[in-house]
Amino acid sequence: MSRLMPSRLANPEALLQSVIQDLPDGFMFSDRNGRILCFNAAAQRILGLGALAVGPDDRTRVYGCYLADAVTPFPSDQLPLARALRGEVVTDVEIFVRNEHVDPGVWISASAAPWRGDDGTVSGGVVVFRDITAQKRSLEDAERLSRAVEQTADAILITDMKGTIEYVNPGFEQMTGYTREEIVGQTPRLLKSGEHDARFYQDLWSTVLGGSVFRGTLVNRKKNGNLFHAEQTISPVRGADGRNAFLVSVLKDVTERLRNEQLQVEMDVAQEVQQRLYPKSAPRLPGFDIAGAAFPAATLCGDLFDFLPMPGDCLGLVVADVCGHGLGPSLLMAQARAYLRSLALSCFDAGELLRRLNEILVVDSDVKDYLTLLIARLDPRARTLAYASAGHSTGYLLDRGGEVRERLQSTGIPLGMFAGRDFPSGPTLSLEPGETVILLTDGITEIGELDGNAFGEARLLKFIKDHRHDSASHIVQGLYGAARTFETKRPQTDDMTVVICKVEAAP
Questions:
Q1: CATH topology of domain 152-253
Q2: What is the pLDDT of residues 404-422, one digit of tens each?
Q3: What is the dihedral sign for C-alpha 193, 194, 199, 200?
Q4: How far is CA 216 from the centre of its chain?
């Protein structure tokens, strides 16, 4: 050591050059004209290029120096070396460098100072810079994560290991009603709803304090007292020392989803009950072929068809349409059906039956809840048909050639609107072999109306005429298929119901 020291001190310039070359940071030194006199290995490694003989105005282009947007070229006269040669001291200027040797690029932090001679004038400039790409990208990642956390709709809650809240995002404020100022420093006990027992929370804390992630659906309470269901994860996060340092909880409000799922279950049950109300099969009467079906637009149907036993061994053919769709109209339909079946057992006249039904519905329902209904009383022994219609779509009696013989038009207003109304019966019609009775709701004739081209009466009657030799059930299914094929641009928006009664030869 004693032998080496004098030799190193004997050549201080060589020692300085050695130290500069061994620096981990980039180092460059220029004369007063900007000509590079010293350029260490770290500078070449970071910039991808060595000390090139280029003028100060060309350095931005040659080395590929850009402003903070990584797109705009860095002004050559604002580079740290240029400023140092003007006598400025520059500290920590961020520059993005990208060239063919450094791709996709590096971020550097550069500092510079003027080198002054004995007379105080600037004789050169010194620049020192370091690669901060890793720190920059880490900071960018942190900023992106922060923006994502701040903007996510889910609630994010961070506490220390004792449960004291240190941070909540805007999603938490929106979900719970508590502001950040109100909640930070408190504990999540503010959200307790009373729906979970002490054992539940003991298991939760045991899970997270043991280093595992808790997942579950909690019932929490908002600031205004309303309860909400949240799918919640609580994750322990380790600090630099490897020990659990804090807890991160993410809450997703699933109240609406659970409510919709429950509603769907109830709707499915209601649909199953409603389907039981429809006749499983049409009655078999000698000399007649009868069929009917309802085709709902949604889970629940506001249409009704039925076959009712009536006095004198007669059969009531019924088609009805309740205003609206969904649970309310379907309940009104079920209510009307029950009353109708009870009244039909003792009421021979179709018009009188509608009058009695109307008086009941006016008392039991709101004025906005109404239904249209057509009932046709079929006398199989006399082979006659009599009907009454409460504001319902026109029915038809077609002759054996498929032409319209009679239109079964409305004889009164819809049911359930006003009390004290009469519903006159239409004429009693004799029935001949080969004739067809058609009862339906307007869902079939009005399909396509939204596009300005409804299926309409003409297409309906032509289909029946062309298929008059088919069975009643085939006509019902075929008519529905023709209507849906006619309108393919939209989903079905209205319920469709059809009853067909074909008159055959007398037994």
A1: Beta-Lactamase (3.30.450)
A2: 999 999 999 999 889 999 9
A3: negative
A4: 22
